[in-house]
Structures are given as structure tokens and as C-alpha cells.
Design goal:
Structural class: mainly alpha
Largest sheet: 2 strands, antiparallel
Strand order of the largest sheet: 1-2
Low-confidence stretches: 169-174
Helix content: over 70%
Mean pLDDT: 82
Number of helices: 6
Length: 174
């Protein structure tokens, strides 16, 4: 039995109309971002990632200072160090890419179902006319907006993003 008629038989048609559709897609994007965030948290060594981010920030600052002073030998040494750091970064990036691929395939299947279920019906309404978007949002636009918004909050809550404070850099130097 196809899924769309099954959902209709179960009385899930109310999900096609705002505000139910609006909240459903918001919760779905939050759930997907939470699953990806928790998986990232389990895969990534956060202490190593933080160390790398601090070191990268310090290296970038040192490079700008050396270029500003015209110290070519220091620039050459810093570029070698930068190449080593880029190799480290590519290892971390590869781990995250594997994880992304793991979640991408099921998400494609879910997305295919959602497009069929909601069609081109408006999912949400903007309180103003936004450039390039308009006032009515279809599933694609609304999911992207929800995903961006929930990803920021969830990443912060799970400690996947952080601010590098000046004191941290100084503490790492000494």
C-alpha cells in the first residue's frame, strides 16, 4: 500500500495545512539536526578540534603580522606550518564528510516522501514580503530556513561551535 493514501486514511491530512505543516517541518528539521549533531559529537574529538581552531586563529594572526612587517623568512616558516595544519584539518573534515554521507542517503528518501506529501502547497507564511522568497513558503524554502535556524541552536547546545577568546590564545601560547 502506498504511503500517501495510508497517511490520508490515518487522518494525517491536517499536516498539509499551516500551522500544523509549519510546526511539523520545524520539528522534523530540529530532529534531523539533533541526530546529526549528536553523531558529530560522538565522532569528533572536541578538545582536539578546539585546539586546532585556537592554533589556526593564532597562525592566521601571526601570518598577517609577518606579511605586514615584510618578514619573508617568517612568512615562509608560517606557510609550512599552515600546510601541516591543513593536513590535520583535512583528516577532521573527512570524518565529518563520512558522517554527512551516512545521514544524506536516508534524508533523500525522507525528502522524496515529503515533496510528494506536501506538493507545492504553502507550508508557512512570512509576516512580510521577503526578497527572493515572497510571503508564502513552500516545503523547500521553509525546511532550509528551519534547518539553518535549528542547526545553530543545536550546535551551540552540543558544544560543536564555540568562540575563541583572546585569553585562550594567550594561554595556549605560553
Amino acid at each position: 500500500m502506498p504511503i500517501i493514501p495510508l497517511l490520508s486514511a490515518l487522518g494525517w491530512e491536517f499536516l498539509k495545512e499551516p500551522p500544523a505543516s509549519t510546526l511539523f517541518i520545524l520539528l522534523l528539521s530540529a530532529a534531523v539536526n539533533l541526530a546529526v549533531g549528536v553523531a558529530n559529537r560522538m565522532v569528533i574529538d572536541l578538545d582536539e578540534y578546539r585546539r586546532w581552531m585556537i592554533e589556526s586563529s593564532r597562525l592566521r594572526r601571526e601570518m598577517m603580522e609577518a606579511v605586514r612587517r615584510g618578514d619573508q623568512r617568517r612568512v615562509a616558516r608560517l606557510q609550512k606550518r599552515q600546510q601541516r595544519m591543513m593536513a590535520e584539518q583535512s583528516k577532521m573534515t573527512m570524518e565529518r564528510m563520512k558522517l554527512t554521507l551516512f545521514f544524506f542517503l536516508p534524508l533523500i528518501l525522507i525528502w522524496n516522501f515529503l515533496i510528494k506529501f506536501f506538493g507545492k502547497a504553502p507550508i508557512a507564511y512570512m509576516p512580510f514580503k521577503a526578497p527572493w522568497i515572497g510571503e508564502t513558503l513552500n516545503i523547500t524554502v521553509w525546511y532550509i530556513l528551519c534547518s539553518l535556524a535549528t542547526n545553530v541552536v543545536i550546535s551551540r547546545a552540543l558544544g560543536l561551535t564555540f568562540e575563541i577568546e583572546a585569553g585562550e590564545e594567550v594561554a595556549q601560547k605560553t
